[in-house]
Amino acid sequence: MAVAITWSATNNGGAISQPLNHGNVQNGGTTTPADIWLRHNGTNSITSCALYVNTYSGTYNGGASAATDFTELKAWGDSAVEASFGGVLVNMNKSGSYATGWAVYNGHTVGSPVYGFVGCTATGSSSGTGVTIPTQAGIASAGTIETAETDCGFQIKIQVPTAEDTAGKRQFDVTLSYVYTS
Amino acid sequence: MRGWIKYFADGAQERGLDRDVRLKKASWRNSRQTDIIKVESHHDKYMICILASGGEYWQSDNYISSLFSPDTKVTIRRIQRKTEQQENFIILQASAYILSATISINQPLVSPIPETKQQVILLTEANKGKWFTIEMDLQNGEIRSWFADGKI
Fold first, then answer.
1. Which end of chain B offers a freer environment for a tag, N or C, measured as fewer CB atoms within 10 Å?
2. Which residues on chain B are in Cβ contact (under 8 Å) with A181?
3. What is the rounded distance in angstroms from the CA atom of residue B13 to the CA atom of residue B26?
4. In the sheet that A131-132 helps form, which strands lie side by side, from edge to edge?
């Protein structure tokens, strides 16, 4: 790897022990937002930095399969019915104390809150639909994490749809895509 | 082999193998930029290449790192060269695993690469001064070329 990325739970902290457990939540509820910080060890900036929700890349030990969980989580984000809406919500408005940036159901135009997103088919669920990290995440230039910069942070939480009828563990990953020139 | 090679008019070469870049022993930016005549980027059986006499070249790669699998993985390898006003032709030679582009003033006689198909692109005012970009997408095996407004 040309550049090592560190995902930590505090600014400039140690790497998050894997996997990150978001806890338990009932229908209609959301998990406590988890703080995530990103930094790298490259000699130069990494650019075009974008985040997206992804298929779990570890050893799966949920109740279905990693692919099924990912499909389900995207479907929650896609839902045109409020009772079925939910999924993996990412808020990159750190400078605004995360007051805005959480996706909320708004009649099937979900996925594009300012400075955040919910993983759904159109947004934040593949390398082609990744959401550029904004300056509000603590970086000087949108999409660019400078060398030795440690302030890039965001939060993740999970919203379980009110109408969900299958209890059990869901697993997913969050991926950073970026461009680097040595 | 994984990484890039710069070839120079005086016969010199500079290499940026992934392991050397990782160890900060090689750098595109800090290596020689003058009199480049060819740049190759390799990823195992895949190879992209631009041949042009002098001018401005650029190289970048796309990577991903995941929360659960933070080790970075290269997903796209890319070479760019800014086309110049006096240049009129790009000869592409492409196969499933190779894309080689020769940029020149006059239509060149290129050394044929076995099992590749050749295509001629005429440079126009619309794409002169743009960055001719070739990249290999390692996730889907696609090799493609296009004109970008700037360095990526």
1. N
2. 28-29, 58-61
3. 13
4. A131-132, A47-55, A172-180, B57-66, B73-82, B131-137, B142-148
pTM value? 0.93
Q: Tell me the chain B residues in contact with residue A182 when contact means C-beta distances shorter than 8 Å.
A: 16, 21, 26-29
Question: What is the tens place of the pLDDT at every residue in A13-27?
Answer: 999 987 899 999 999
In residues, how long is chain B? Answer: 152
Q: How far is B36 from chain A (nearest CA, A)?
A: 17
Q: Identify the bridge partners of residue B118 per DSSP, sorted by sequence position.
A: B93
Q: Which residue of B has its CA nearest to A177?
A: B64
CB-count burial class (<10 Å; 0-12, 13-18, 19+) for A88? buried
Question: Which of B66, B69, B72 is nearest residue A4 as measured by Cβ atoms?
Answer: B72
Question: Is the complex ipTM more than 0.85?
Answer: yes
Among A1, A3, A8, smallest CA distance to A150 is for A8
* pLDDT of res. A18: 78
